[in-house]
Amino acid sequence: MDPEQAAHWSPRKKRPRQRSASVASAPHDIRFQDLVLFILEKKMGSTRRAFLMELARRKGFRVENELSDSVTHIVAENNSGSDVMKWLQGQNIQASSELELLDVSWLIECMGAGKPVEMTGRHQLVVNRDYSPTPVSSLNKIPPLAVQKISQYACKRRTTLNNCNHIFTDAFDILAENCEFRENEASCVEFMRAASVLKSLPFPIISVKDTEGIPWLGGKVKCVIEEIIEDGESSEVKALLNDERYKSFKLFTSVFGVGLKTAERWFRMGFRTLSTVKLDKSLTFTRMQKAGFLHYEDLVSCVTRAEAEAVSVLVQQAVVAFLPDALVSMTGGFRRGKKIGHDVDFLITSPEATEEEEQQLLHKVTNFWEQKGLLLYCDHVESTFEKCKLPSRKVDALDHFQKCFLILKLYRERVDSVQSSQQEGKGWKAIRVDLVMCPYECRAFALLGWTGSRQFERDLRRYATHERKMILDNHALYDKTKRVFLKAESEEEIFAHLGLEYIEPLERNA
Fold this sequence. Notes:
By secondary structure, the protein is α/β, with parallel strands linked by helices.
């Protein structure tokens, strides 16, 4: 097992208990002679203790089976400093003033670093000077999650790309995706919310007790968490990854232009591979699907940030050639700091453009690329936007701006360095690009909506409705109490209208 996974490991409760003194371990070289560890079994359990002891020994730490005068550090889990002292008192052991009492989080960080890490206040279990056998709260431990007020709304949580709980969130992403394939919206949202809140935590979940007080972690979600803690994986997720229907839907929907209805039809027709789909003469494909098959290898590979920046230059040059004062913003995951993505999204607006110029711009840009031989696919969607129309009440509502969905040819020389995702000898890569043209007065709302993430936007709209009696979408913000539209020149102003602390795009990865 990887050292970083130690934080998420816990034994099955059904296994027979085993006294730690009887656990045999192979001899290991001791690299850190000044440290002698003793891991307390109290509240941890013998099997988990044995696992951590063996892992620490493999990393070069000296770990004692029994407490002795040579021990310099006692490591405990879910115990305060006073709890440890009370246990020592019960063993008729007089603790030295130089003995370090540490939370298990310190040991887990040591395992990840492969060496002792600095002991800080959050690791040390401090005992009051006037200690008595009555348990006293630890002074410097991290407060339990239950007392840290974690909001149910993603728009009130800061979520960076530094996810400490991948082992859980990866599982919930797969479960949510399967529910989406089966059009089970309620369960899909349940798993998405669980993944979202876990991504926002600045530390890993180690035990089920750590989930107390965290929103969206009830019922089936908690059962999945408990199973992963005990077994290191979810049996349901493991079964899904081998499930024929899930694998087929995952494969079919990876084709540009293929949605759930088409995937369902192909699956019911007995198809399981893309090659058999393409060879079947009875099937007809849309123009989008044909482009998806034609450029499949490129489109299914990740778009790197270098490639996204190269596309940005391409878009910027083409747009300002026809509308010099236009503002072009890269949105989506790349605006949130991601290094890779599946496509590149751009929001375009202009403070001076007439309505006619706005309507013509995307057509001019795509015609220009077509003449240059850069346009591999184009689908225009004309604007149906109406000013002064109330925002949509649906949290997943699409906007009505003019947009086009493209596949562009990106030549290798436009990228700073050759990307591994580009095919050998081809010289170019097909890249998915979305362009959105919005009126200048809507730019802040559109930028906020197109930046994402999906769960962040869902919760932002839900918060506006349930907490502020407002309606928010990509077009506007409407105050139902005052019956007025609230203007905003920036994202910061939208957050201020909602009474929310502003969250930077880099912290919206919910």
